[in-house]
Specification:
Number of helices: 6
Radius of gyration: 20 Å
CATH topology of the largest domain: Alpha/beta knot
Structural class: alpha/beta
CATH class of the largest domain: Alpha Beta
Helix content: 25-40%
Distance between the termini: 37 Å
Strand order of the largest sheet: 8-7-6-10-9-11
Low-confidence stretches: none
Strand content: 25-35%
Largest sheet: 6 strands, parallel
CATH superfamily of the largest domain: SPOUT methyltransferase, trefoil knot domain
Number of strands: 11
CATH architecture of the largest domain: 3-Layer(aba) Sandwich
Number of domains: 2
């Protein structure tokens, strides 16, 4: 039985809601819910609520909200991850772990040395798939807020007056020496590192460079380490 189920609605006691076919199939066929069972739910924007299953049809699960909970307060600091495009399951694992570790926003961008390409005709499919990965991670770990996901270009995320932007670089000082109690965006590159043009972009914007220590990590592992360090700010 799912202990933390995402339903994208504005909850109100007595509201009746019908799930789409995909979510209905998951509850009815995979989780085998029955009428009368109670779900612990959240809407991804801080609101939690409980709902009763009214009809467990595999195509149209119907439920009724029976109680709402106080809106959860977000964390004191905002953490953002800008991640160079990775291939296949490595990308999924990075997004999943970043979500479980509390990232607030994720920017995916094609780095010059990314080992994967985001073809124009597949952008929407990839975005939909990654969104499902992130939402599933929220359900698994008990988060109340679903991180924002953006397909971006590196030039658009290196400069933001509202957040401290730093870039991962294996030859720099450790991130732990530069942690501040403020909002931070960490830019993480692909396995092949940064190109000369990307390094010039960082220098032109005066970005601070940070490392994660002396060991060489896989690109898919870096977000988990970065978010773990950011979680210890202040």
């Amino acid at each position: 039985m799912p202990h933390h189920f995402l339903i994208d609605c504005e909850p109100a006691e007595g509201l009746e809601y019908t799930l789409d076919s995909e979510r209905s199939h998951y509850l009815a066929r995979v989780m085998r819910v029955k009428p009368g069972q109670i779900l612990d739910c959240f809407n991804g924007r801080g609101s939690g609520f409980t709902a009763e299953i009214r009809d467990a049809s595999p195509r149209n699960v119907q439920l009724r909200i029976i109680a709402t909970k106080p809106v959860a307060e977000p964390g004191p600091y905002r953490s953002e991850l800008a991640l160079g495009l990775l291939k296949g399951q490595a990308m999924d694992r990075s997004l999943q772990l970043a979500t479980e570790l509390g990232v607030d926003s994720i920017h995916v961008f094609p780095a010059h040395r990314s080992n994967a390409k985001l073809q124009a005709g597949r952008r929407e499919n990839r975005l939909e798939h990654w969104t499902k990965v992130i939402r599933g991670a929220c359900e698994q770990c008990g988060r109340m807020y679903v991180p924002d996901l953006h397909l971006s270009h590196l030039a658009d995320i290196v400069d933001d007056p509202d957040i401290t932007v730093v870039v991962c670089d294996a030859d720099a000082d450790p991130l732990s020496e530069h942690l501040k109690t403020d909002n931070m965006r960490i830019i993480v590159g692909p396995e092949g590192g940064w190109s000369d043009a990307e390094n010039t972009l960082f220098s032109d914007h005066g970005l601070r460079r940070v490392s994660l220590g002396p060991l060489t990590l896989r690109a898919e592992s870096v977000p988990a380490v970065v978010l773990t360090l950011l979680n210890n700010r202040g």
